[in-house]
Write a structure and sequence with these properties.
Oligomer: single chain
Structural class: mainly beta
CATH topology of one domain: Immunoglobulin-like
Strand content: 25-35%
Helix content: under 10%
CATH class of one domain: Mainly Beta
Low-confidence stretches: 16-22, 212-224
CATH architecture of one domain: Sandwich
Order of helices and strands: HEEEEEEEE
Radius of gyration: 44 Å
Distance between the termini: 126 Å
Strand order of the largest sheet: 2-8-7-4-5
């Protein structure tokens, strides 16, 4: 069988059969200089999007204003502070055995801001020895809600018969329960006058000053 000689090939001019990307070696720096302007722009856009999705979105903290402190005050006095109360002695009782069913009611409003509100009803306040006439447990609340206070006056035998003031006090300081005011800006008061243990026909109660609220509910004209 006849054979024919193969002419020699110039290997220096033979083009490679693999692209530059396919033949990339590990650790070798990629060269993007051959890319078009559009391709380079697309790569930059993808990189920015990747960074944006991997980060955390930081927003400003929402700030809520705290309720402003408001001095407590009384409303809806029942009976009205202009009415002279009549608290007689019990039938068949002693001269200082006073009836204990005289109702007294009012409402309080206060922005407590997590501080307990104390309520006291005292006979002969202010004075050197005011005496309790009602008891209320401390509570918490806000200015939006009117809290009722209802009691039956219990006048102690240590109160002498005659004309006496009866004062309701509210404060965030428990000292008011013994008639001590440490912070006048945090106290609400209302005052009634009462004929205690005597006949108003023969011994009428003439309060000094004249009966009326002590200024606590003047904020809203006497009631809400």
């Amino acid at each position: 069988m006849p054979s024919y000689p193969v002419p020699p090939q110039n290997l220096s001019v033979v083009r490679p059969t693999m692209t530059a990307l396919s033949g990339h070696r590990v650790g070798q720096r990629r060269n993007f200089t051959g890319l078009s302007g559009v391709a380079r722009t697309s790569l930059v856009t993808l990189a920015v999007m990747a960074l944006g999705t991997s980060g955390c979105l930081i927003t400003d903290k929402a700030e809520f204003s705290q309720p402003a402190p408001v001095p407590p005050f009384l409303t809806d006095l029942d009976p009205p502070a202009t009415e002279i109360l009549n608290i007689p002695t019990k039938p068949g009782g002693g001269d200082r055995d006073y009836v204990d069913d005289k109702p007294l009611a009012f409402k309080v409003r206060s922005e407590d801001l997590q501080r307990y509100l104390f309520t006291a009803v005292l006979v002969d306040f202010p004075g050197s020895n005011p005496k309790p006439a009602c008891f209320f447990p401390p509570d918490l609340g806000s200015l939006d809600t009117a809290r009722p206070r209802d009691c039956k006056l219990n006048i102690l035998p240590s109160v002498t018969p005659g004309c006496h003031s009866i004062t309701a006090l509210i404060s965030h300081d428990s000292s008011i329960q013994i008639g001590v005011i440490k912070n006048p800006s945090d106290v609400g008061t209302a005052t009634w006058w009462a004929q205690i243990g005597t006949d108003p026909m023969y011994d009428p109660c003439e309060p000094h000053p004249s009966p009326g609220d002590a200024g606590a509910d003047a904020r809203d004209g006497g009631g809400l």
